[in-house]
Amino acid sequence: MELALEPSRITAGTQLEPAHQARVLEEFYREGYAILPGVLKREEVAQLRHLADQFIDHKETAPKGYAAPVYNAMVLRCTQNLHRAFCDMLTREPFLSLAEAVLGPNAGFCGQNVIRSDKDTGISAWHVDDILEFPLPPEIPRHDARIRMPVFWFSFQIALSDITSPENGPTEVVAGSHYSGRNVSKDSAGEFEGRGPTPILCKAGDVYLFNHQLWHRGSINRSSERRYLMQNQYCRQWGIHRFSAADAVCKIDGGDLAGASPRLLKLLRRDELLPKA
Ligand SMILES: O=C(O)CCC(=O)C(=O)O
C-alpha cells in the first residue's frame, strides 16, 4: 500500500468575509465554541477518512504509538507526520486566517489528530484539556463576562462523518463554562449558570472552533456508523514547546513537501526546506 503516492486532495479553501469572521469570533469568545457549516468538500473528507483508516488499521504504516485508544475511542496522533494531505489542512482556509486572528500572525501549530469512535466508544469523561488555566478561589463565583478570556491554544474540530444526532456521539459542551474558573467532575458536568450539556451536531465537512477550557467530552457513539473527528490545533508562537506533542515537528520526507508554502513549512518547523534567500 503506497499511501505516500496518493496526492493531497486538500484545497486552498477561502477566508471568511471580515464581517462573518467577526461574528464567528465573537461567538467563539463568548460561548467557547462556534460552528462553521460546510467548510470541507466531499473529496477532502473522503481522503482524510480513508487515510485515517489506513494508518489505524495497518499499524505498520505509522510509527508505533501513533494509533492508540484514549478511553475506548481510537486516536491517530501526529497525523502531519503521515501524509501531505494532513499537512495541507494546516494552511487550508479558513483555518489559518482564523488561527492567526485569535493567536497572532505568528500562530504556531501544536497538534493534529483524528479520533475514530466505533459503536459504544467515545472519550466520554468530562474534562478540560491540559490544565485549568484560570482557576478561581471558592469565594469568586466566575470570571467577569466583560473579560475576553485569553486563548493560548485552541482546536478546530472537523467532522469527517455526519454527527447529526446524539446517537452519533457528538462532542458535548457546557457553553460558557470557560468562564467558570473551575474544573468539572468527570462523571457529570452538571450546569454552569443554568446551562447544561449541549451536543454539537454537525455534518461531515462542518467545523467548529473549540476552546479546550470548556467543560466537554465526546459522548458515546450509540449508532452503528463510525464517527470521525479531526483536530487541527494552533497555539501562540511562544507556546509551541509548551502545547505541542513531543513529536509535533513534521517528519515527512522533504520531497513530499514539494511546493509547500513558506507559511506551511514554518508551521511544520521545517525551516531547512525554505528557499535560500
Ligand atoms: O471526541 C470528542 O468529541 C471530544 C474529544 C476530547 O474530549 C478531547 O480530544 O479532549
Write a structural description:
With 277 residues, the chain is α+β, with helices and mostly antiparallel strands. The chain has one domain (63-271): Sandwich (Jelly Rolls), CATH 2.60.120. 19% of the residues lie in helices and 18% in strands. The strands form two sheets. The chain has a seven-stranded antiparallel sheet with strand order 1-8-5-10-4-3-2. Strands 7-6-9 form a three-stranded antiparallel sheet, with no helix packed on it. Strand 2 (67-70) and strand 3 (73-76) form a beta hairpin. The protein is globular, with a radius of gyration of 18 Å. The model has no long low-confidence stretch (mean pLDDT 95). Bound molecules: 2-oxoglutaric acid (AKG). 2-oxoglutaric acid binds next to strand 9. The site of 2-oxoglutaric acid (AKG) has 8 residues, from strand 9.
Short key terms for the protein model shown above:
277 residues; alpha+beta; Jelly Rolls; 7-stranded antiparallel β-sheet; 3-stranded antiparallel β-sheet; 6 helices; 10 strands; 18% strand; globular; binds 2-oxoglutaric acid
